[in-house]
Write a structure and sequence with these properties.
The complex is a heterodimer of chains A (334) and B (524). Chain A has 334 residues and is an all-alpha fold. Chain A has one domain: ABC transporter involved in vitamin B12 uptake, BtuC. Chain A is built from 14 helices and 2 strands; from the N terminus they run H-H-H-H-H-H-H-E-E-H-H-H-H-H-H-H. Chain A has a two-stranded antiparallel ribbon. In chain B, helix 8 crosses helix 17, helix 12 runs parallel beside helix 14 and helix 13 packs across helix 14. The chains are: A mainly alpha (334), B alpha/beta (524). Chains A and B meet through helix 9, helix 10 and helix 11 of A and helix 10 and helix 12 of B.
Chain lengths: 334, 524
């Protein structure tokens, strides 16, 4: 009988250890997000209602979509800096193509998606076949795409978005069970997150992206078709950027600088979601929460009364901090 | 072993005494003492890893010795940096040149100490000085002071390096493998140059793998082995055979699994006929199921290039390649993997592993890259073999608590097993091993050797490249010896180190062996 006590306590210890092990494996992004979001909720009671939370998630959705695309490029060891100006191009170009005619909404979206695929193909081809670093290629593409948008619109885009175009970004599904209203943008984002969770974490493609980002030479010697996978990754990133831009179009204005800096927001979101800037690590759900966290952080800064320039400074700190962290941890291992 | 006669009459120009240098895990040099006299060409030879380059780097100030001293003209010196060594008259010409390709010959020779007037470089003086140096070497008609270094041939670049050393008024000139990239005419030219330098009373230290040139140029030969000084002999009193025996004589350091029996060897699975590319010429050999074919050769003889050509990394351009009885063109590794070949590379960290990925993903990558890009994956296996990873882990004996652990946290031996498992997962039956046990501790080494032999028993054909001769001899059922991008000869199992080295250095003829005789004949 005396032996049961130690057995019982040791079992309790092992259960606690298992729970602790589980807690330790939760990525830091989740507690960080909830801490910031709850703080925001205290400061602004709007965020305590279902409606307020939906408004927040709707606004964060396009960034989450951008960040998923950016994350995959980062995980392959590259950068996609052309995202922001592609957003500008899609918004400016759509307003030109639509010319206030609701009947053209779907053809416009189709054309823009084709443009996205083309931009991704050019980025990917230049990186894989011409062996130009992605930082340079996509920086050039940033200027090129933005320049085309400026030229096309003459610097001042005409027209407005028709309602059937705007509905993706600002509309709600009505009469949804439990929720009542459910934002269309959030729904699109969730579908994309699930699809790309599957593609990135559950197919050969994702494992090959991570392998390329981790050690491109070894990937090549293990039979990975490095160039094809890279091109595909840039196409995904550009395609997701077009979708994000259409959602932004739902509530943003039409101007030639709407997308400025969005590539860095996407990089920041990916990085706080645990993506390694030098490649080899990345996760779709963590990056979605990275985007939520960044959006919540912007709201927090806003509520505290800090003006917009602080956002940029905070993003800069996040990126530098993330790189420093990555550099420190890899150095410690060596 | 012949030891040098004492040269009491002259004072050595440079002397190293009791030099010891350790690197993590190895003693690169152990208590080495040597004397270098003026007007003498002194060759230092030894196998890969014998400590030749380390010794030269210590003399030139690139490394600091852990113990011992360097005496230059009777004075104790220690150089903190190669620049200090230069200033004191000790010059070293490395295998890779330290020249600026887009600068002129004159600018390179006088880099950092250009003659100046009023703080401005005096170009005319610079060219006059350069011409004087080139004239001293008797090459003024060959090289113009204003020529860009990048426009010169490798041999002429070498002369520029020598001219640079002369311009520093060097007394000791160290040349690390000076002839590695030269044609025979150019080597002859270099010989003449060395004669001139000797006449100036310089001490020349010459490191080379090629015994032929060593015997042409050197007055004295010192042999190093495993960081130990074996001895110094006068060239006129010795033969290449004797030097080779000094280079290799040693005991086997561990036991190898028994060799395969001839009746176990099956059909030819890989046949190369006249394979060639930029690095390789006239490569012809066969590899049979169930055998270990060892590939020996000195550094730069084309061993790794052979592996890369077979695996499609740097493909063959000419000749034919037959895999499993069918003629194949392997243009990239993906095709090689699809033909069930596996390549365990020399540099495990940079070419074999994905340090931040889990063990299971490392193991499955090669087989996954053959499957459809968007094919669904299973964590521990394939759609048809769900439990592949644990099975492989047991088969290669990986010691870990979880296959989700990132491979960067595994020991070197375990990492090598992960690489092995990657190719087992892709069902490879032709394995290429390039230096399979480099940087692995003794126990894990034996484990890998057992595993290679185990593979052959399961019908796998193994091509094993190694620069460690005991490993080649201990493991190989046949031995190919490479030299200058060709197969210089084929030797039977359990040939001696001396026999292999003689073929590898170009001083031996494998006896009773048809193909090596052919290869030698084809070379002439």
């Amino acid at each position: 009988m005396t032996t049961t006590t130690p057995t019982f306590s040791s079992r309790a210890v092992s259960v606690l250890a298992a729970i602790w092990g589980f807690i330790r494996r939760i990525p830091p992004i989740y507690p960080v997000f909830f801490a910031i979001f709850i703080t925001v909720g205290f400061l602004n009671p709007n965020y305590q209602t279902m409606n307020g939370i939906f408004v927040f998630l709707r606004r964060a959705s396009p960034l989450a979509i951008l960040a998923i695309g950016q994350m995959m490029v980062l995980a392959s060891g590259g950068f996609d800096l052309s995202q922001g100006s592609l957003v500008t191009f899609v918004i400016v170009g759509s307003s030109m193509l639509l010319s206030n005619d609701p009947a053209k909404a779907y053809s416009t979206i189709g054309i823009m998606m084709a443009v996205g695929v083309l931009v991704g193909l050019i980025n990917g081809t230049a990186v894989s076949f011409l062996k130009i670093p992605s930082l340079i290629v996509t920086l050039g593409m940033l200027l090129l795409v933005k320049g085309v948008a400026m030229y096309w619109s003459g610097g001042a885009p005409k027209g407005y978005f028709t309602d059937n175009f705007r509905v993706f970004g600002r509309g709600n599904f009505e009469n949804v069970p439990i929720f009542g209203k459910f934002p269309i943008a959030l729904f699109i984002m969730l579908v994309i997150a699930v699809v790309f969770y599957f593609i990135f974490h559950r197919t050969n493609y994702g494992k090959q992206v991570l392998a390329i980002g981790d050690n491109v030479r070894a990937a090549q010697l293990s039979g990975v078709r490095v160039r094809g996978i890279r091109v595909l990754t840039f196409v995904f990133s550009a395609f997701l950027t077009v979708i994000a831009a259409i959602l932004y179009g739902g509530y943003g204005g039409i101007s030639t600088n709407v997308g400025d800096g969005m590539e860095f927001q996407a990089v920041s979101a990916a990085v706080i979601g645990g993506t390694l800037l030098l490649g080899g690590k990345g996760s779709v759900p963590n990056v979605v929460f990275g985007a939520f966290t960044l959006e919540a952080l912007f709201n927090l800064l806003n509520l505290i009364g800090l003006p917009k320039p602080y956002r940029d400074a905070v993003q800069g700190l996040i990126i530098i901090g993330a790189v420093a962290y990555a550099a420190l941890t890899t150095r410690r291992k060596q | 072993m012949a030891v040098q006669e004492t040269q009491a009459e002259t004072q050595p120009l440079l002397e190293v005494r009791n030099i010891t240098k350790r690197f993590p895990g190895v003693v690169a040099l152990n208590n080495v003492s040597l004397k270098f006299y003026p007007g003498e060409v002194h060759a230092v030879v030894g196998e890969n890893g014998a400590g030749k380059s380390t010794l030269m780097k210590i003399i030139a100030g690139a490394y600091t010795p852990d113990a011992g001293e360097i005496i230059l003209q009777g004075e104790r010196v220690s150089f903190a940096h190669p620049v200090e060594a230069y200033a004191k008259g000790v010059s070293i010409i490395f295998q890779e040149f330290n020249l600026l390709p887009e600068r002129s010959v004159a600018q390179n020779i006088f880099l950092g100490r250009e003659p100046s007037r009023f703080g401005i470089i005096d170009r005319r003086q610079l060219h006059r000085d350069t011409e004087a140096v080139l004239k001293e070497l008797g090459v003024e008609n060959l090289i113009s002071p204003s020529a860009l270094v990048s426009s010169l041939s490798v041999a002429n670049q070498q002369i520029v390096e020598i001219a640079k050393a002369i311009s520093y008024d060097s007394k000791v000139l160290i040349m690390d493998e000076p002839t590695a990239a030269l044609s025979s005419v150019e080597v002859k030219m270099l010989d003449d140059l060395v004669e001139r330098l000797k006449a100036r009373g310089m001490a020349i230290i010459f490191i080379s793998h090629r015994l032929g040139e060593v015997f042409d140029i050197a007055d004295k030969i010192t042999v190093l082995k495993d960081g130990q000084l074996v001895g110094t002999v006068l060239t006129k009193n010795t033969t290449p055979q004797e030097v080779v025996f000094m280079m290799v004589g040693r005991e086997l350091d561990h036991y190898y699994p028994p060799l395969g029996k001839p009746e176990d060897f099956g059909e030819v699975v890989l046949r190369v006929t006249d394979g060639s590319n930029d690095f390789l010429k006239n490569i012809s050999f066969e590899l049979r199921k169930g055998e270990v074919l060892g590939v020996a050769g000195l550094q730069g003889s084309g061993r790794t290039e052979l592996a890369q050509a077979l695996f499609g990394v740097v493909p063959f351009k000419g000749g034919t390649l037959e895999v499993h009885g069918k003629v194949q063109m392997i243009k990239n590794p993906t095709q090689a993997i699809a033909l069930r070949m596996g390549f365990v590379t020399e540099d495990r960290k940079s070419e074999g592993l994905f340090p931040r990925q889990a063990i299971c993903d490392n193991m499955l990558l090669a087989v996954r890259s053959l499957q459809p890009v968007f094919g669904y994956i299973f964590k521990d296996g394939l759609p048809k073999e769900r439990k592949l990873v644990p099975g492989l882990g047991k088969r290669v004996d990986i010691r870990t608590d979880s296959y989700d652990r990132e491979v960067q946290f595994l020991s070197g031996g375990n990492q090598q097993k992960v690489v092995l498992a990657k190719w087992l997962a892709s069902k490879a039956d032709i394995f290429i091993f390039d230096e399979p046990t480099r940087g692995i501790d003794v126990e894990a080494k034996a484990g890998i050797h057992d595993m290679i032999r185990e593979l052959t028993k399961q019908g796998v054909a193994v091509l094993m490249i190694s620069s460690e001769l005991p490993e080649i001899i201990g493991m190989s059922d046949r031995i190919l010896v490479m030299r200058d991008g060709r197969i210089a000869g084929e030797l039977p199992a359990q040939s001696s180190e001396a026999e292999i080295m003689l073929v590898a250095t170009g001083h031996g003829q494998a006896e009773n062996n048809h193909s090596s005789v052919q290869a030698e004949a084809g070379k002439e």
